[in-house]
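User: Sequence in, structure out. Go.
Assistant: Echoing your sequence, followed by the structure tokens.
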Amino acid sequence: MGTRLGRWGRAYKDWSPASVRASIEESLRRLQLDAIPLLQLHGPQVSDLTGSLLGALERLREEGKIRHLSVNSFEMNIIAHVMTLANFGAVMIDYNILRLQHRAIINELTTRDLGILAGHALAGGLHSSSLFGDCGMRDLWYGARAWKNHRADLARSRHFYFLNEEKDRAAGEIALAWVLANPSISCAVFGTTRLPHLLSTLKASGRPLDGELLTRIERAAVLPAHG
């Protein structure tokens, strides 16, 4: 919500009340829903969360077109601002084996009774010792994006290559299970391009990690990038 496609498929942001209403009503029509259960504002800045926008969203909620509001942002100053607003019931932040430091804000969100969605839950697959190996053309775009947007994490991600050595669990499944081990996480969000990868990763649900593996991950998470 908030991201629109313009000419030549170029994305742009439009948080005007008229655009927000049009987008929601279009989504309801395409999804064939009476109400959107959880409306996610995708990547707003603090300055975008104006009284006019919040008022328009509340009117849409009163009309029964949306039920709950959430903000998706990987910028913690924005999440901190959202915590001061009574309009929102959930947030999505990036939380994965490379984001151990976000536990502090997760604890604060929990005390405020906000639902927490873990975005980027597989850490872009950077824990794979062969990020561009053994993949099809559909995977290359995701691998390239992970390398482009998260290059600062590459040095630290090598500490997690040991996940690829587990015999009965894929590295992605382990990474997701670690996220789900946090009881404050309501839902974990990840992308996939292949059915085998999806099915393998979904095994993380209801299959907790053993203590030894959890300890090893925790130790790796605090190692310096070049340590």
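User: And one key feature?
Assistant: Residues 17-31 form the longest helix (15 residues).
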